[in-house]
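Case study 2.
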Amino acid sequence: MPTYRDFSITLLCGLALLTGLSLYAPGSVSFAPHEAMVLKRASQPLELQLQSFYSPLYLLLMGIWQQAATNPVWLRLPSVLCGLLALIVGMQVIRQLVGFHAAPAALLLLAGAPFLVAQARAISPATMVLALAMMSYSSFLEYRRAGQRIWLGALIAISIISWGAQASLIFLSLVQSAVMLINSGRFNSEKQRWWWLAQIGVLILFALAFWHPLSHFVTVRLPALTPAQTAEAIPLFALLSTNLPLPEALPGMLVMLVLGISGLRATADWRKNPRHSLLIFGLIAPCPVYLFTPQSEVILLCALPCLFGLVAMGLRLYPRWARQGFWAAIALCYIWSYWHLY
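Prediction:
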């Protein structure tokens, strides 16, 4: 069984990998039109930033950050730092979700994921959102384990703060509540009572704070859904797996699909195991949010740790020679994605 020293080494390797890939070839980095728009919004007065539906918390951070320098690498550094924070917090989350044996592989897959690297190289709130999602999962898992209300308070605070980065992160509360409901027999009555009281308060506060966009989504966007939108699921999985469009993403997508389906076999007890329930729901929930709202990679990034958790669990079901073959295939697919990225 891997020791905590092994996990520390894996985490350091993952941090070094993500840092190197995110900061590689800084001379090739130039501002995309949407990045220039974000910087323009960030330079606006604080009152306008707080009124913006585009991640006011991130705009506030970038408004302060760009006062120090305007170098492209410097302006992208918050995304890199948030990505590293997401890895640090995510290590504990991944270890609890997939177990000691599969966690190192899942962390390395996440650290080198082309989709994460692309977001860490961009002026975007995506990695900030991922870090907040990992903090939310960590607090939930600790409350599930220990039942201490300090973790429930931390979860409520993180939920409210996360709305400033991306209001769609309300899906975290829904996912965690679904896990509590399905596995209600594994939690004592007091723990459940405090949980539901807290979640009712969070949902009421969310409805009051975002009433207008919420009512627009329910009355306008939901009735306008078409079956064609569900066809975007395949390009969505290609984006998650390789950060490439089809058909370039096909080899990497197929490798991840095979391993992900194998990982689902290892989570067949998800109705009785809260960790596996959270792993599956954490992968599925961001996808319809991405498909049925203005498509933003910000929310889709939250599915990545759960995807690679399943992939790492699937890897462990194969003999050693097959695992080595899969790792070689993953490495080639990652390199192919990096070649397109840079």
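Residues 4-30+71-212+232-341 form one domain.
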